TrEMBL record, chain A:
<dbReference type="GO" id="GO:0005654">
    <property type="term" value="C:nucleoplasm"/>
</dbReference>
<protein>
    <submittedName>
        <fullName>FA complementation group F</fullName>
    </submittedName>
</protein>
<dbReference type="GO" id="GO:0007283">
    <property type="term" value="P:spermatogenesis"/>
</dbReference>
<dbReference type="InterPro" id="IPR038505">
    <property type="entry name" value="FANCF_C_sf"/>
</dbReference>
<dbReference type="GO" id="GO:0000785">
    <property type="term" value="C:chromatin"/>
</dbReference>
<dbReference type="GO" id="GO:0043240">
    <property type="term" value="C:Fanconi anaemia nuclear complex"/>
</dbReference>
<dbReference type="Pfam" id="PF11107">
    <property type="entry name" value="FANCF"/>
</dbReference>
<dbReference type="GO" id="GO:0016567">
    <property type="term" value="P:protein ubiquitination"/>
</dbReference>
<dbReference type="GO" id="GO:0036297">
    <property type="term" value="P:interstrand cross-link repair"/>
</dbReference>
Automatic annotation (TrEMBL), chain B:
<dbReference type="Pfam" id="PF02106">
    <property type="entry name" value="Fanconi_C"/>
</dbReference>
<dbReference type="GO" id="GO:0036297">
    <property type="term" value="P:interstrand cross-link repair"/>
</dbReference>
<dbReference type="InterPro" id="IPR000686">
    <property type="entry name" value="FANCC"/>
</dbReference>
<dbReference type="GO" id="GO:0005829">
    <property type="term" value="C:cytosol"/>
</dbReference>
<dbReference type="GO" id="GO:0034599">
    <property type="term" value="P:cellular response to oxidative stress"/>
</dbReference>
<keyword id="KW-0963">Cytoplasm</keyword>
<dbReference type="GO" id="GO:0043240">
    <property type="term" value="C:Fanconi anaemia nuclear complex"/>
</dbReference>
<dbReference type="GO" id="GO:0006289">
    <property type="term" value="P:nucleotide-excision repair"/>
</dbReference>
<comment type="function">
    <text>DNA repair protein that may operate in a postreplication repair or a cell cycle checkpoint function. May be implicated in interstrand DNA cross-link repair and in the maintenance of normal chromosome stability. Upon IFNG induction, may facilitate STAT1 activation by recruiting STAT1 to IFNGR1.</text>
</comment>
Length: 369, 559
């Protein structure tokens, strides 16, 4: 067993090496050996994935072998692809070794090549399919309808978080924020990362409802478990990352559309409070201009919402679930009360907001009665 | 062999020109053209690979100097890469061209170019500028492009399916907000992807999509390709989607029916159970519950019958098909089922009603009476009223052929049940010889009656000699009319199966008949039908069943 664990420790080194200039010295024998290792790791994964204790031991050993642990037990299962593709991209690989790599990755050969060539052909086919199916899309019909690329990134993020959660569970540890979490999110440029996180949270929240929208990435055994622990270990890190940093949270809320945020706030109570607080903060920066007869920004600062935007946001919140609507209404009423409880417009931004939002919604309902 | 067969230079130039013309397939013209040529291109690529795989990369490039251009261009055409197995062959070819010991800068450059091309095909790597951020994100998570594209394609399919199915808004489905040209484009873009399992939900939705336009909005190339893939069992679609395909695209239905006939005629029909299985799998009997489909399938069967001069195999296939159709119709739970009579609108309704009754719906003792009833109606139709044309006569005859169980049972009942044989004989005479301008049918009837009488005399003899039957045999071999031959062979075979003394001489006699009259296929067909009927309908004594199976075994070996 110890020998096995020592072997498993080699995985990060193997992958790192495959991506580095070290491959310059590889010949076809070394390459074959590397590929064999990869297959062996996959074999280990398949053997042990139904045995939680062994999984946990292997996983822990793997994490120990890394400075900033980002690889876990499930990566053993993906090893052949990780290694193969990394080597393919590595320009430092000499021609003889490369030829060997191409032969074993792509060409039909004996039984050991097994699923590998097929899955790479499938990859090429799917990539072409993604080009073909990328018809210019019609306007999105609901906040849940996100662009497929965004969704795919979100699904991979979710998948990884779920894997972490399962490993933590099998180790009997509490699910916390994984150490690789911030580093991963930093890979994406700022506006994009917000969209991905939002998509991930929405996807997790809608878990059971989505029919065939996307499965679980990786080799997770238990599929779409929207259980309490599942929710906690996946949504938890995402939410704490969002809410933990005030600047980030504010940027997040200002960047995304009101409908999407309302949807998120409806699913996650940890978001609704901070969001309402943020909106309250924005509202307090508005001043009434009697000459124009409307509310304007007191300082032309981008990090503040305009009157129209603020109203739109509150309207979206009202259109959410009953709980959310109640919460929003209570918040507005409280703000109105603290601001002097005026009934006349033009004196308190909260009075005006409350009036307009409720009026707007009443008008919407009229045609239906 | 592959080394010596040169890939025709002409072909190579042709495909290279095509590849240049198509570019990355951004215009509708080029897209349609690519789709048209995908299967041949795949074959051609395969031929190239077979030629390349035994060669050294240097030699290969010498033989095909422009191969780099061809492969390169094709790799950037998503229609080609997305199709069936073309991407595999493209990648194999690229592997063959990669040199393991490059001798000069040219070869080095070629190697580098091959790597780039493969990276383009396989990874969301840093090589593609618009995917740079995604790729680092994904690899930091510990996934590969394989995982990413797996999700991406599924999401795209889901999004398109949702768009087509409309959206539920306040309880209303708003369909038809997708323009016809967009749906048409979707169908064309899906064409290379038909055999990709991820795309099946989209195929289904497209096939079931009705936009309210009167013309067909799905591309006909697409419909054809889906049909092909379905027939070759490369994809599996739900029944409703297949029926929709056939209803919207007549050539596909025709192709499916002809394909079924081909299949059945070419495989050895050992038992009707196998035939029934193949027919059921084709989904045509189930589809035929749509009267339009029923009509067309029958037309095709009719033509097949005419073209093959009424061979027993085709007649049997039609019979089994009709039985399966009736079964499927009965099992259907739809509220608005068409009554069975609606499928035979141009026929004499009492005759239809009589024929539609399945044997198992009546106790065996009533069969003779029912057959007499059928015979009487037929006779009245054919002889007394003015059956104006040959075509009308054919239609009536074809109707009876479809319910061929009854004539078969008539031949049995003649020998087994007591009672007036005339009506049953007439029915059989009509079945085998519908025309009567030159009194052929009348003649047949006369001869058949004579043989019948002769056989009935011998029916209860427990000991029979071959000689005793010789007289009957002579009349079969002597007769000039082949329809007589068929009828008499039928009677004789049944006699051997069901009479007390027949089984002792059955083997020898059947051998004799089939040798002298070259009718082994026919007898085989008859025996197969009888076996099927016994298995499903009747009780029969063990001796007969055993004999039947023995005869079948012997005959199928010969045929």
């Amino acid at each position: 067993m110890e020998a096995l664990l020592e072997l498993v420790e080699q995985l990060p080194a193997l992958l790192a090496g495959a991506r580095s200039a070290l491959v310059r010295d590889w010949d076809s024998l070394t390459l074959d050996r590397a590929l064999e290792w990869a297959r062996y790791f996959q074999h280990l994964h398949d053997r042990f994935r139904t045995r939680p204790r062994l999984r946990e031991v292997l996983g822990r050993r793997l994490r120990r072998a890394q400075l900033s642990p980002s690889l876990g037990f499930p990566h053993l299962g993906r090893c052949p692809q990780l290694l193969g593709l990394a080597l393919l991209e590595n320009r430092a690989l000499p021609p003889t070794a490369c030829r060997c790599l191409l032969r074993s990755l792509l060409q039909p050969s004996g039984a050991e090549a097994g699923p590998e060539p097929h899955s790479l052909a499938l990859l090429a086919r799917r990539k072409a399919a993604s080009r073909l199916l990328a018809l210019p899309s019609s306007p999105p019909l609901s906040p849940a309808d996100m662009e497929p690329q965004l969704q795919a990134e979100a699904q991979l993020l979710l998948g990884r978080l779920r894997e972490e959660g399962q490993e933590a569970e099998s180790a009997g540890e509490a699910a916390g924020r994984p150490r690789w979490f911030s580093a991963v999110l930093e890979q994406l440029p700022t506006p994009r990362v917000f969209e991905v996180v939002a998509a991930a949270l929405l996807g997790q929240g809608n878990g059971a409802e989505r029919a065939g929208g996307g499965g679980l990435a990786g080799n997770s055994l238990d599929g779409n478990r929207a259980s309490a622990t599942g929710e906690e270990c996946v949504a938890g890190p995402l939410l704490s990352w969002l809410v933990g940093n005030q600047e980030r949270f504010s940027a997040f809320c200002l960047f995304l559309p009101g409908s999407l945020l309302a949807s998120l706030a409806g699913h996650y109570s940890q978001l609704s409070r901070p969001y309402l607080d943020l909106l309250a903060g924005c509202g307090s920066h508005l001043l009434y201009d009697p000459l124009q007869g409307r509310w304007v920004k007191s300082c032309p600062d981008k990090a503040v919402l305009s009157w129209e935007e603020l109203r739109e946001r509150f309207t979206c919140l009202y259109q959410g679930s009953a709980v959310l609507r109640g919460q929003t209404q209570a918040a507005l009423k409280l703000l109105k009360a603290h601001d002097g409880d005026f009934q006349v417009c033009g004196l308190s931004v909260w009075t005006d907001l409350l009036t307009e939002v409720e009026e707007c919604l009443r008008k919407d309902y009229l045609p239906l009665t | 062999m592959a080394e010596d067969t040169p890939v025709p230079k002409l072909n190579f130039e042709y495909w290279l020109n095509k590849a240049i013309e198509w570019g990355q397939a951004t215009t509708l013209e080029s897209q349609k053209d690519v789709c048209l040529h995908l299967p041949q291109l795949q074959e051609f690529l395969h031929e190239i690979y077979e030629t390349l795989k035994h060669k050294d990369s240097v030699v290969a490039i010498q033989q095909f100097p422009l191969i780099g251009q061809l492969l390169g261009r094709l790799c950037w055409n998503p229609f080609v890469v997305g199709y069936d197995e073309s991407q595999k062959t493209l990648m194999w070819c690229l592997c063959c061209l990669y040199s393991s010991e490059p001798q000069n800068p040219v070869e080095l450059k070629a190697n580098s170019w091959i790597r780039s091309l493969l990276c383009h095909l396989l990874s969301s790597s840093k090589w593609e500028s618009n995917e740079a951020e995604t790729s680092t994100f994904i690899s930091t998570l510990g996934y590969t492009s394989a995982d990413y594209y797996c999700h991406l394609v599924k999401n795209m399919v889901f999004s398109l399916v949702t768009e087509l199915r409309g959206n539920q808004f306040n309880g209303l489905y708003i369909q038809g907000r997708v323009s016809a040209s967009r749906v048409n484009a979707m169908s064309l873009f899906c064409l290379p992807l038909i055999t990709l399992p991820d795309v099946t939900p989209l195929l289904e939705t497209l096939l079931l999509y009705h936009g309210g336009a009167s013309k067909e909005i799905l591309s006909s190339q697409f419909l054809e390709a889906v049909n092909e893939a379905f027939l070759k069992k490369k994809i599996s679609l739900p029944e409703t989607a297949v029926f929709s395909l056939w209803l919207r695209h007549l050539p596909s239905l025709e192709k499916a029916t002809l394909y079924l006939l081909d299949q059945l005629v070419s495989i050895q029909l050992n038992s009707l159970e196998e035939v029934a299985c193949v027919i059921k799998d084709s989904l045509l009997p189930q589809a035929a519950s749509h009267p339009a489909i029923f009509r067309i399938v029958n037309e095709i069967f009719k033509n097949a019958l005419l073209e093959t001069d009424g061979t027993p195999e085709v007649m049997t296939i039609i019979q089994v098909f009709t039985q399966l159709f009736l079964q499927a119709h009965q099992n259907e739970n739809k509220q608005h089922k068409f009554p069975l009579k609606a499928y035979f609108p141009y026929h004499h309704q009492p005759l239809v009603t009589a024929l539609l009754k399945r044997p198992f719906e009546l106790p065996a003792t009533h069969w003779s009476a029912h057959l007499k009833h059928i015979s009487d109606i037929l006779k009245a139709l054919v002889e007394d009223t003015n059956v104006s044309s040959l075509a009308d006569l054919f239609e009536i005859w074809f109707l009876v052929v479809r319910f061929g169980e009854w004539p078969d049972i008539a031949a049995e009942q003649l020998l087994k049940a007591a009672g007036e044989p005339d009506a049953l004989l007439w029915l059989l005479a009509f079945y085998y010889c519908p025309q009567n301008e030159n009194q052929q049918r009348t003649q047949t009837m006369v001869e058949a009656k004579a043989v019948y009488n002769h056989l009935m005399m011998l029916f209860n003899c427990t000991v029979l000699s071959v000689k005793a039957l010789e007289a009957a045999v002579h009349s079969i071999t002597d007769t000039e009319q082949c329809c007589n031959q068929h009828l008499l062979t039928h009677l004789l075979t049944n006699f051997l199966l069901f009479s007390s003394g027949g089984h002792t001489i059955a083997q020898e006699f059947i051998y004799h008949i089939t040798e002298t009259t070259d009718s082994s296929k026919e007898v085989c067909s008859l025996l197969t039908r009888t076996a099927y009927r016994i298995n499903h309908n009747g009780e029969e004594n063990e001796r007969t069943v055993k004999l039947l199976n023995e005869l079948l075994e012997k005959l199928t070996l010969k045929v």
